[in-house]
UniProtKB/TrEMBL annotation, chains A, B:
This is D-2-hydroxyglutarate dehydrogenase, mitochondrial. Pfam families: FAD-oxidase_C, FAD_binding_4. Keywords: FAD, Flavoprotein, Oxidoreductase. The lineage of its organism: Eukaryota, Metazoa, Chordata, Craniata, Vertebrata. It is an enzyme of class 1 (oxidoreductase). It comes from Dissostichus mawsoni (Antarctic cod).
Length: 539, 539
């Protein structure tokens, strides 16, 4: 306990030294990163004495008309001066980055749909400013060469001239307990690196997603990432056991427990899980990891109708039971894009729907028998028309890529409008069918894929280029449709910049108002990831 | 969505009619219940015009010296007048209960260690006041005949003259989706009734605990109950999908989603899970239920040392893998109490430690084989010295009762000091050994049992009668010991009245201060379950 207080004291001391400005123009921060708000954007509140730094902004939202997805006007934060920058360079030697090439990857999200841009000419205002690291006495460099932000809703890139904070070099594993399977690590650890570390120790991470090679665990937690294993291991709200968070006033909140159960007061860490960096900067994570399964099988199946696909899902839940670890789907349009753009060959005969089922268990003989019985029943009942099974690692990866690379194939098909919808599972494909009919030939492709087991549809619409008329046809149609089924307009991607104003389709105004109260309580000056998550009309 | 707003409007209207007092003396409420804060205690803020109702208080904390577990002075809430009671009776005909016999079960927790008591003579101030029900147009009666509050930290009984709100008659199941396994129900549903309902539909509740026959699901959620299935199905933070909550100002917060994934803004329901009724009154719950396993086995084993017990746990995780659903333990002292007080016979030969392992799976042949292999390995390696297996329901129940009825056996042994500790699993029994040595012959019995799989020890110390000297020897020793291992002083029981002031042993002051901010935000007048969960020194 003493350690906590000492660190907290160090932090406050550091913070006093850190602030290059007078108390009346405090720093305002936003955190973003990879699949996450985990680079910290910083702005200054108005300072009448310093007016010369003017940053204009270009936000490419793909629509000329003002859209609820467009950014609001720049808030009256102060602008960074040369004096500020000199100060940052002094306290962060080699870490205050202004090189435009290095900044590019953090200014633009990987979809290239949202871009923050400064036109300040004497020096570039975007800097990697790793304040948290100083507090922890770690050493950082700029995250040059990072593969960029993997978020899908513009939550992880600056909107105007916010300072970007990267946690990329906070990438240490702190502890791992091989009895309990509890891992603690810093926020900048790449998910895939954690997975590799754990696999050597007969454990796995409880989450897995396509962006694993570049996304950070801190970002995963800040966005409450779902992914491919949620069906089996549950959400991060259950598996994350502790967090260390830097609050907007610079205090370190130590909730980095490594206990499976703890009912001493309110569970504060839950506030930060899924808050997209708007309430605090996650710097460390402790997480409960499952044992590495001894046996993994992947099946790729084809179904004639979505109804048969759902029956196959039900059958798999009954017959595969505790070894079912994923039930994913894609439609024939996805397959066409995989063939066309990525030259991936359909491993089975053509079908309207495809399913990827993964089993993982502790006994390969038992798992094989269960799978065999399930497949026999599914074929006999004519629920599936074709299929292939993989038990070897390379073939497992090949089958998984049919599902995981759909997002990539879409980027080659044109400008993509992405929707991440939660619905009662029996309704999820109806939205794709209805959207296809609704749009007619206005769209290039309308595709559906996602996590059947979680009732989570990824609906994507492409067009040759950005198309405001198409966007107007999609929205609010898609949101109204979703709300009519009591669905969620963001199952796992979050709201970020693009979807913040659509929150009312999924949450009553009272709930949104309470979110505003929480934001005001934790970040009264609104300096953390401004313009994100919460709607503009919130007071 | 329209329904939500209508109901909210109805609520506000109802609330205006409801308040029998002027705005400057608003109602103050606390919710308690069974294993939970789910009866609502109500006090009035000071009203100079009404001074005649004086309620004195006797709080039986078992210690004459002021203890951190003792209640603070009564806060200056108003007292209920005859006019108030007449008003309540008018709007709640037959539901405003003042009969002392009926009130007894809600005034006293089931351990009989905490008692709120009014001595007002002309009528009894404790009334069942089911305000939430009115808003929902349901019909309630007093919960006479309920088996009483099952909480263990005095969180569910009034301290002074708070009004008690019972949700016992809000016991309707609202929806159940047999495809997704998502159940929505009212807060007063008894856990066992929900289990029976689901079992008919091939599902089970994701939690199970000894008090299932009387505890309410709303209380389970309000206290973030753990129980016997957490190892397999995770905590309520992952399985609870939605809540409906009545806030301190009477607004209904509708977060009753039935979606497995929803990342639209902050996850407000998490605030209320585990908040012990101090932030709002949970009125409805939606929860994700697992499939009913087709095969269940229970094994009762004996180990010579706790180290062997831990090795047995590790072995079971590897060899039983995905079918392991519980790993519980009790020591020989527990067995002695079961023999002595409940006449339960040890099903195996005498050992220092006993283990209850449950498997549940989808294939009885596979499960049987896994279990057989595991037991063979455990015997061959001399990890266990004796054991018995049950596959039939009645024998399964009999073996489980050896673990579940320890709490009951303790109540017959004398006055019980109860501690519910989270620790790194390899440390959990050391605390029992150290405590036994520390107390010497001052205690009657010092026993340890609990959830090995969750690192959760139940440490219990008995004495012939309440014994302040013994208590002084136990505390703060037990808390300091726990804090030295970064453990939690309340794994699953919560803090309630008795442990509120010990929170600093498990949480840094910054975290506690933030909890205070949350309380002030949601319940600025402090009317919900006062004197509970948060420490007295909180401003």
């Amino acid at each position: 306990m003493a350690g906590i207080f000492q660190r907290s004291l160090r932090l406050r001391t550091a913070l006093r030294h850190l602030s290059p400005q007078s108390p009346q123009s405090p720093l305002s921060w936003t955190v973003t990163g990879r699949h996450t708000p985990l680079d910290l954007h910083c702005s200054f509140l108005p300072s009448t004495s310093r007016q010369f730094a003017v940053c204009s902004r270009k936000l490419h939202t793909g629509a000329d008309r003002p859209s609820p997805a467009a950014a609001p006007d720049r808030l009256p934060f102060s602008r960074i001066t040369q004096e500020d920058l000199a100060f940052f360079r002094k306290i962060l030697p080699g870490r205050a980055v202004t090189d435009p090439d290095l900044l590019e990857s953090s200014n633009v999200d990987w979809l290239k749909s949202v871009k923050g841009e400064s036109e300040f000419t004497s020096f570039h205002l975007k800097i990697y400013f790793l304040v948290v690291i100083i507090f922890n006495s770690s050493i950082l460099t700029s995250s040059a060469g990072s593969r960029g932000n993997t978020g899908l809703v513009g939550g992880s890139v600056p909107v105007y001239d916010e300072i970007i904070l990267s946690t990329a070099l906070m990438n240490n594993i702190l502890t791992f307990d091989s009895i309990s399977g509890i891992l603690t690590c810093q926020a900048g650890c790449v998910l895939e690196n954690l997975s590799l570390y754990l696999e050597d120790r007969e454990y796995i991470m409880p989450l897995d997603l396509g962006a694993k090679g570049s996304c950070h665990i801190g970002g995963n937690v800040a966005t409450n990432a779902g992914g491919l294993r949620l069906l089996r291991y549950g959400s991060l709200r259950g598996t994350v056991l502790g967090l260390e968070v830097v609050l907007a006033d610079g205090r370190v909140l130590d909730c980095l427990a490594t206990l499976r159960k703890d009912n001493t007061g309110y569970d504060l860490k839950q506030l930060f899980i899924g808050s997209e960096g708007t309430l605090g900067v996650i710097t460390s994570v402790s997480i409960l990891c499952p044992r590495k399964p001894k046996s993994v099988n992947v099946v790729f199946l084809g179904c004639e109708t979505f109804e048969q696909l759902l029956k196959t899902f039900q059958l798999s839940r009954g017959m595969l039971g505790e070894i079912l670890s994923a039930f994913e789907f894609l439609d024939s349009e996805c397959m066409r894009l995989l063939n066309t753009h990525l030259k991936l060959r359909n491993p089975i005969s053509d079908c309207p729907f495809y399913v990827v089922i993964e089993t993982s268990g502790s006994d390969s003989t038992h798992d094989g028998e269960k799978l065999h019985n399930f497949l026999e029943e599914a074929m006999t009942s004519s629920l599936v028309t074709d299929g292939t099974v993989a038990t070897e690692d390379s073939k497992i990866k090949a089958l998984w890529s049919m599902r995981e690379r759909v997002t990539e194939a879409l980027t080659h098909d044109g400008f993509t409008y992405k929707y991440d919808i939660s619905l009662p599972v029996e309704r999820i494909y109806q939205l794709v069918t209805d959207m296809r009919e609704h749009l007619g030939n206005r769209a290039k492709s309308v595709v559906g894929y996602g996590h059947v087991g979680d009732g989570n549809l990824h609906l994507n619409v492409t067009s040759p280029a950005k198309d405001p008329a198409l966007l107007a046809a999609i929205e609010p149609f898609v949101y109204e449709w979703t709300a009519s089924c009591n669905g969620s307009i963001s199952a796992e991607h979050g709201l970020g910049l693009k979807k913040r104003n659509y929150i009312y389709y999924s949450k009553p105004s009272q709930a949104v108002a309470l979110m505003g109260n929480i934001k005001a309580m934790l970040d009264p000056k609104g300096i953390l990831n401004p313009y994100k998550t919460l709607p503009d009309d919130l007071k």
